[in-house]
Protein 1
Amino acid sequence: MRYVQLDTQSDPQADTHPTTEKQKALSQLLAGELQAMGITDAHMDEWGYVYATLPSNTTKNVPAICFCSHIDTAPDASGTGVKPIVHKTYQEQDITLPDDATQVLTPAVHGYLKKLIGHDIITASGTTLLGADDKAGVAEIMDAAHYLMTHPEVKHGEIKILFTPDEEVGQGTAKVNMQKLGAQFGYTLDGGEAGSLEDETFSADAVQLIIHGVITHPGYAKDLLVNAMKIAGEILAKLPKSELSPETTSGKQGFIHPVRIEGLAERCTIDFIIRDFVTEGLKKKEDLLQGLVDLVLEQHPKATYEFKVTEQYRNMKEVLDLHPHVVQYAKEAIARSGLDVKTESIRGGTDGSRLSFMGLPCPNLFAGMQAIHSKLEYISIQDMNKAVENIVHLAAIWEEKS
Ligand SMILES: [Zn+2]
């Protein structure tokens, strides 16, 4: 309730780190609270990252594991003046948010509410997002840290805590110092439904296509001028529609998605994102796209093009499959918390996918957040408690198995 009242919205337009200075206020607060728990190395660095270490309390040699959450909130809805409200003992009714009567949480649309009967639910007041994404994860890690610090009978190895800014604008790992973090395996707490575990993300590339036309005075252009914008239009019209598009795919299907176009008659640029769960699938989609471009350009022999592929991120499963116990222990912790394990794939990327390829295999654990990035965002306090329990079990399981 306290953390969400600090505005920590990140800014996709900024090229500073953090992208907004206000995020540091929460980082500073968290570092201070960790210090007050007796975690003496807790601190915020110049980029707004918080690092802290719970010392090992076992004689066993246990790998250092990290729990990670992001402190920023999404730019999709306002994060200024968040007023969290607790709705006690939910009874499957509609919840109308008091500051905007058009914002109504209803089980008919938000089916997960039906699983929360009897729970206490937190929402915002109707004019802002709640910021449970990902301050729920932050609060759960803080509570688990407090529990472990005050319950020495729970044996665990070294536990690292990492709070990152700017996850929502794709910069969450930009300034992370892996050496300083000193963890071997990690878990992000940035997932939804209680019991869910995400060990798979998209693999992602970007493609930039630049079409060069031929420009002349339009009055004397017959048989000379080649308009790059018209070629771009032909290429876009040839893209697959009933398949390989985000609007027509789901589950494990990938896509080719034009996200931006900019141009003049002389030169036109189209930016695409390419997504697939299998990294080789990216290459196939890129070849398909380039084939379409070649087909169109055959009709315009004087035009030329550049086709640049940039790697964005890779499916974390490629890394996690090399260390199956990381996911196995998480499943065991969820079961010990009394929940059914739901393994899910993310049709997107997470900080965990980047961290996994930076040497920290890192699946995503549930934190309980629902309807994220919207004014209807909500979370169950009981789900949050389960997430805390899950962290504590996980810390203990790593010690037991070492
Ligand atoms: Zn998040």
Note: The two ends are 37 Å apart (CA to CA).
Protein 2
Amino acid sequence: MTQEFSATAESFFRDGYAILRGFYDHETQIKPIREGVRRIIAALCQKYGVDAPTNTVEEAMGEGYRRLIATNRAWGGEVYDAVKQIPAFFRLVSDSRNDDLFKVLRANSDPGIAAGGYGIRIDNPGEDKFRAPWHQEFPAQLRSEDGIVFWSPLIPICPELGPVELAVGSHAEGIVPVRKDDGGIGKAGAYALRLDREEERLARYKHAAPLTNPGDLIVMDFLTLHQSGQNVADRARWSMQWRMFNFANPLGIRLSWCGSFAAGQSFETILPELLIEASK
Ligand SMILES: O=C(O)CCC(=O)C(=O)O
Ligand SMILES: [Fe+2]
């Protein structure tokens, strides 16, 4: 197992992320999730009387979803809340190969799955409110600072869809303090945190925007600086993410592995030293 992941581990330690091509089996692991998404979109189009194509996965996740949210954007929120409850998605999140991979990347670790830290992003063109600005995962998730983000697409990601962007090697920054800023557009929770001296820090690293296909996996260190790309395509970008952390991490134990925003907490009550400026 260690052998299988040795190239991955090398780039993960050096760059703060690694890409595993075809890590998941399309037929047995990815396809059932995509089909589950199709059924949810079809059910909501039927419920609300939206005339939209949903017979194939491509239709449903593309034009079907587009017409649903064009009629009422809030129905997109219903899709977002529903799709993370697809059993096949849970099976992917809790695949024992994820634990194996985590244990290779975090020696002597005891892996956990961050509750509330899993979901399926649906990034629509022209919507800035839900785009994640440059951030580290740790303040947004807590649990343990040696956690790892798992990121895997549900559709082929081309440049126009705005692939996730990473600052290569930026995990070397350590934990970066943050300030609150809603971007003037009501960003909330983790999306309203901005890095201390962001530009200066980002200038130190090359940026990567990996193009991936369903079945591929990106693993990202909890300290790697990353942001959402900008979707300038004519359709939604669908991608899955979840987070694993380490029960054996000393800071994790100190925090009793508590979560952040998605767990109804705010990181600044737990680690106040990380916040450098009061909210406006
Ligand atoms: O995919 C994105 O747009 C952002 C992803 C992200 O921040 C994450 O997976 O932690
Ligand atoms: Fe993130």
Note: The CA atoms of residues 92 and 98 lie 9 Å apart.
